[in-house]
Amino acid sequence: MTATAAAPVTTGATSVASGTTSGVDEGVGRTALMVAAARAIESRRPDALARDPLAEHFVRAARASTHWPVHPRDVPKGPDGADDPLWGRLGGYFALRTRALDDHLLRAARLGARQVVLLGAGLDARAHRLDWPPGTTVFELDRARVLAFKQQVLDRIGARPTARRVPVACDLRLDWAGALAAAGFCPGEPTAWLAEGLLLYLPAAAESRLAATVDRLSAAGSSLAYEVKLGMEPAVVRRNPVYLAARDRLGIDLLVLFDDEPRPDTAADLAARGWSTVTHTPFEFTRHYGRGPRPEPDDALAANRWTFASRGPLLGGPLSGGPLPGPRRREGGPGPV
User: Fold this and answer.
1) Strands across the sheet containing 164-169
2) Which of 57, 190, 191 is nearest to 129 (CA)?
3) Residue 82 has what pLDDT?
4) How many beta carbons lie within 10 A of that of residue 12, not counting itself?
5) 204: buried, middle or exposed (CB in 10 Å: 19+, 13-18, 0-12)?
6) What is the Cα–Cα distance from 332 to 54, expressed in whole angstroms?
7) Which of 77, 113, 208, 271 could form a cystine bridge with 108, CB 3.0-4.6 A?
C-alpha cells in the first residue's frame, strides 16, 4: 500500500545526535523509553506477543536509556531464578498490553474505522509496524518535544509508515480538540481511540475532560480502549519490587508520577453517554494469549484494568472476538521498515 510520511515535528527539541533529548529524558517522558525497551526485548523473543523493530532505535537514541537492555539475554534474573521484576514482570506486562491493544485496534480498523487516534502516543510505532487497511490515518498526540525526538529517530533510520501518520503536538491535560481538528481529523467518521499508559498520569479532571472530548468527537462505530488503576494502592503494594526496580535502576518513580487524586469512573461516564463498555484485568489476557504476568501476592499489577468501549455494537476487545485472521503485523528485526 502507499503510505504518506509525516511532516517533521521540530518544536522544542534538539538534535538526537547531540545526546540532548529532553522530551524523553525526564518525568513521564522517560516512561515512554521504558515501554520501548520492553517492546525491544519482547521483539527478540522467539514467542514474542508483539514485534516492534523501531523500539530499539528509540532506546539507543536517548541519553537516559543508552545502556538499558534491548535483548532478552541482557535481562538479569531475579532472586532464586525468578523473573526480573523490571524487564521480566513489568516488561512482560507491557508486551501483553501491546498485543491486546494491537488486536483491538486492528479489529476496529477491519470493521471500518479509518481514523486511529493515539492519545499520549509517546514512542508508539503502530503507524509503522501494523498492517493497516488502505486509507487509514493514524494521529499521534503528545507533547511537541516527545514527537520531535521521535521524528528525528524515524528520519535518521528512514522508517516508512504503513498508514498516513499525522503527529499532533498538544498537552492532553488541556484542550487538544482544536489541534486535532487542524490536523485533519474528521469527527463524522468512525474512529479508534487509544489511551495506553496515559490516564494513570493525568489529573482526575483532565481524565474526565478527555472522555467527554472523545465522546463529542466520536461518530457511530467509534471505539476507545484505555488503561486505569483502581485507586491508591496500599503501602505493602507500593513497596513491590516492580516499583522499587523502576525507581532505583531507571530513575522512574512511578508512584510519584501516578496522579493520586480519587479517580473518576470513566467507564460509567461513557456508559451514561450511550457507550457500551467492558473491563478486564490483564491476567485475563495472560490466559487468552498463553503468556504474560500472573497474579502474585501484593501485586503491583492487580489494580490495573483495561477498558474497551464502543459507540454502537460492543467490540469487546480481543477476548470477545478471538484472534484476528491472517497476518496483520509486520515482522522483521531492527532496522528501517
Assistant:
1) 164-169, 137-142, 115-119, 191-195, 223-229, 304-310, 276-280
2) 57
3) 66
4) 15
5) middle
6) 10
7) 113
pLDDT of residue 317: 59
Domains of the chain: 22-321 (3.40.50.150)
- The answer to pTM > 0.85 is yes
What pLDDT, on the 0 to 100 scale, is given for residue 17? Answer: 39
Query: Which residue stretches of the chain have pLDDT < 50?
Result: 1-21, 322-337
Grid cell for residue 247:
525507581
Question: Do the beta carbons of residue 167 and residue 140 sit within 8 Å?
Answer: yes
**What pLDDT score was predicted for residue 315?**
63
What is the per-residue pLDDT for 16? 45
- Alpha-carbon distances of 110 from 16, 107, 135, 144, 192, rounded to whole Å: 36, 5, 12, 31, 11
Residues 6+ apart with CB under 8 A from 324: 103, 106, 107, 110
* b/e 241-255 (16+ beta carbons within 10 angstroms → b): bbbbbbeeebebebb
